[in-house]
Amino acid sequence: MPSSKQKVLVVDDDRSVLHMLKAGLADLATQVDVLTADRAETGLTLIREHRPDAVLLDVMMPGMSGLDAVDRIHEIDSRLPVIFITAGDDSEVAIEAMKRGAFDYLLKPLDLPQLQDLVEQALESRRFMSVPVTVIDDAKSRPTTPENSDALVGCSEQMLRVYKSVGRIAAQDVTVLIRGESGTGKELIARAIYQHSKRSKGPFLAVNCAALTDTLLESELFGHEKGAFTGADQRHIGKFERCHGGTIFLDEVGDMSPLVQSKVLRVLQEQEFERVGGTETLKADVRIIAATNRDLERMVEEEEFRADLFYRLNGFTIHLPPLRERGDDIRLLLEHFFPRFTRQFGKDLQSIAPGVYDVLYRYPWPGNVRQFQSVLKQAILQSTGPTLIPEFLPAEVRNYDASAAHSDDADGLPPSDLKKLVDACLRSNSTDTYADALLMMERYVITRCLRHAGGNQSKTARILGITRGSLRNKIRTLGISIDSVVNVSDDDDSDNENDGDEG
Fold first, then answer.
1. How many CB atoms lie within 10 A of CB 44?
2. d(CA 226, CA 375)
3. What's 157-319's CATH class?
4. What is the pLDDT of residues 479-499, one digit of tens each?
5. Any bridge partners for residue 58, and if so which?
């Protein structure tokens, strides 16, 4: 039976390097099968026979060099990530490697943690480019869906509009802005656009703008020269340079600093940039797909996001609906993921009790499809017997009281009566009572403060005594909609009496 692991091919004529790399790759968080070759010609044969997911390739070898081999590799598989290994800090070799489509390069002696991190990135990039994103919009399509594919699941009117938008825009080489709450599947939409585009044979690279500091994000996107800043001990080739001819997905684009915003704008306007600390102007033939769960129009008004960049990114907009507005898609999602997760966890579950559907329909899903998958996994792991029943669902989902949630506050806050929550947790023998109570309190406090500040996040952060970045993270994690918070009618005039203090 073939292995389901990803494969990494190491090509180097130094046997000690081969052994070191094989041992180092065995410690990856993602388990891989490691293939080795001591000549480029042998490596090409292994690529044809085994179709690896990433290649580590020495530059200087007897016979065919690594630089010549990469052209042959991309004739076999144009999307295969190739990481070059070179013995010296030779900038010309590095530049030539990147011109020939290298994913990145490493210098000898090899830094093992750096190597492992780079291979993980290459494997993730390979998955983005090669794992198909399929659409499941009815029960009949499920059996024909490849097991290793990622799926866009939904037959609601809102999701059908999304599929039509992807079909209309994928082949057009314009920027796309994907909007929607956290967990709605923005990355899957970006990958679907890429896979159906004219750039589908080129690279697809993703960057989470919220996960990096301003300096690291600038370096990640545009690269840096050796000595550009403290810790920059060698040249780094950025995503735009590595993605020439391909597609870059900028997730959480609303979290970019003004400096990075200006540099991305220049790429969009002039298709050029410089590395951090460099003077050479480089060309960037890339398509940008951006995503955000933030109100960019409000950010433009508050001068937190450049208006000209917003208009450039907003070449075509796709709005992803929240799960709570997708009706019977919840049933389709359950019927799609249930067999997959039961196989994944080795559970002998054969059916789903009707009460499970009732509970899942009632819950508002602030974390959307990502939360739905997490809840279903927890329920399956908790299950005993052949049928999935409501008692196996997490307490916060099982005990959600929609009428109490809306009677306490019209903006969808959970009930403020903690006694009700704790009693429900005790009845269900929950082991998450403390976490559930803290989550309720945190959501309530942040939402009330946002309403008091009229949705102004800077003012809200000051009221709470936390940083604005921390507040943004909490808003994403808790699934709070700023529009819902601000636009709700409120009978308590004291909440709004100071909203005009700050614009």
1. 19
2. 46
3. alpha beta
4. 676 765 665 444 333 333 333
5. 85
Q: Is 245 helix (H, G, I), strand (E, B) or coil?
A: coil
| Cis amide leading into 109 (omega within 30) | yes
Q: Alpha helix locations (H) across 279-328?
A: 296-301, 307-313
Handedness of CA 193, 366, 121, 8 (dihedral sign): negative
Q: What pLDDT does 409 receive?
A: 45
Q: Which residue has the higher pLDDT, 266 or 328?
A: 266
- Which of 498, 469, 408 lies closest to 444 in space, CA to CA? 408
Do 362 and 323 meet the contact criterion of CB atoms below 8 Å apart? no
> In the 8-state DSSP scheme, what is residue 303?
T
Q: Which residues pair with 177 in a beta bridge?
A: 290, 317
- Residue range 137-157, pLDDT digits in tens: 775 555 455 555 688 999 999
pLDDT, residue 2, reads: 43
Distance from the Cα of residue 270 to its chain's centroid: 27
Query: 301 is written with which tokens?
Result: 């008004």
Residues in the chain: 503
What is the CB neighbour count within 10 angstroms for residue 367? 21
Are residues 223 and 180 in contact, defined by beta-carbon separation less than 8 angstroms?
no
DSSP letters for 305-316: S-HHHHHHHTTS
User: Around 407, how many Cα atoms within 13 Å sit in the side-chain half-sphere?
Assistant: 5
Answer yes or no: are the C-beta atoms of 319 and 277 closer than 8 Å. no
| CA–CA separation, 407 and 201 (whole Å) | 53
Taking CA atoms, 91 is separated from 58, 75, 103, in Å, by 15, 25, 16
pLDDT in tens, 108-142: 888 888 899 899 989 988 988 888 888 887 755 55
**At a CB cut-off of 8 Å and minimum separation 6, what does 423 contact?**
none
Determine the CATH number of domain 131-153+322-393. Answer: 1.10.8.60
Q: What is the pLDDT of residues 414-423, one digit of tens each?
A: 444 566 667 6
- Each residue of 273-296: pLDDT tens digit? 999 999 999 999 999 999 999 999
The whole-angstrom separation of Cα 5 and Cα 432 is: 34
**Burial per residue of 233-257, b for 16 or more beta-carbon CB atoms within 10 angstroms, e otherwise:** eebbbbbbbbbbebbbbbbbbbbbe
- The CATH code of domain 6-130 reads 3.40.50.2300
Quote the distance between the C-alpha of residue 425 and its chain's center.
33
Paired with 10 in beta bridges are 36, 56
Listed by start position, the domains of the chain span 6-130, 131-153+322-393, 157-319, 411-503
